[in-house]
Amino acid sequence: MVKPYKMSLKNGISNFGKRVICIVIGTSFIIGSLTGCGSGKKKEIPTIQLSLWGDERSVPLLNEAVSEFQELHKDEVKIEFTISLEGEDTCKDTVLSDPEHAADIYAFADDQFEELYRAGALLEITDDADDIIDAVGGKESGVADVVMRDGKVYAYPMTAGNGYFLYYNKAFYNDNDIKTLDGVLEVAAANGKKFTMDFSNGWYIYSFFKGAGLELYMNEDGLSNYCDWNATDTIYKGVDVAQAMLEVAAHPGFISYGDDDFVKGVQAGEIIAGVNGAWNAGKIEEAWGDDYGAVKLPTYTIKGKQVQMCSFAGYKLIGVSSYTKYPEWSMKLAEYITNEENQLKRFEAIGESPVNVKAAQSDKVLAAPAIAALAEQSVYGNVQRVAQPYWDAAAKFGITIAGQNSGNRDLQELLDIMVEEATKPVED
After folding, report:
1. How far apart are CA 60 and CA 166, in angstroms?
2. What angle do CA 159, 216, 273 make, to 5 degrees?
3. Phi, psi of 323 (to 5 degrees)
4. Model confidence over 314-333: pLDDT tens digits?
5. The predicted structure's pLDDT at residue 172
6. What is the CATH code for 3-154+316-354?
């Protein structure tokens, strides 16, 4: 259910400035430029209606963006805007429940793209499409792979914050220590502390297999996965990765912790390094203070060689409804909302990492360790496109490895079982 955003007239005028007036009508507010009675203008300016959906944190940013946009185009069009609350994680379900009555412009998480695209709910972006992709790193970038189909663009990239990296305590680690997982573990053990990573979560253990060149992705049917993690004819075999993970699990400087225990361990002084995401940056910084550090994932040892750990990456996008009555202005506004300047404003207001390359390299963004680490790791990040059966299969395998394979089961057998379960189609 979409929740209407209500704003008082007083606050609306305060937020938008003196040149713009906001009039509340039910759940809508109308924005138009004030013109003098004696202006002498005879040009008739058309009026159109556009609706937008965003989560609660985004509403103030949308208010500001649409106000600025109207001011920029006041001599071309008057736009009546309606902004309503809709979570980025639930947007897909709301849109698909009644596509014809979805908002003209809406924000959603990248893992919802495929279903929205297949349902025909996303308008093809024809206005400045090449520029939009160039701004996020070109057609070879991870986010371009998300929003493009058959060379065409169907959504505007907005943020790049859903990934993971290495947190570390500078009181214990120097720049050289954090380059390799071996170095991270050795320092932790030498100080009677721990490095942590959640081996029970397929989101994290993906980093070892993908780093070794093995593959996992959702098939075109959207119901099953391709996974070769049990491969025996690749440069690094599946058992090579499993053995490397076992050696990490057996190290005295390692412990497998989930999200909550990771934070508690940091606060208790037990954990001095760990793999996690930006959502815990505030708590980690509070605990470590000036010693708080974050960087891309390290390399790990496999068959005596160093291999870069990879990661899943995630994005937030803006889509334009294929049913909009005003595609030209919807595209223009969506592009404005997601431009370099507004991505920086979003970072400053709510801490979300820009996906625009110039914005991501700005001094303000690079000064935030977690965001800078995400940007650094994004080179080794891959979009999460995985069907449900993978998660349980990977969790069982990871728990066995975290327990140092106490039953001494054959690693190839463990991998074969995991892959068999991970590649089963979703049951109806």
Report:
1. 32
2. 60
3. -100, 5
4. 899 999 999 999 999 999 99
5. 98
6. 3.40.190.10
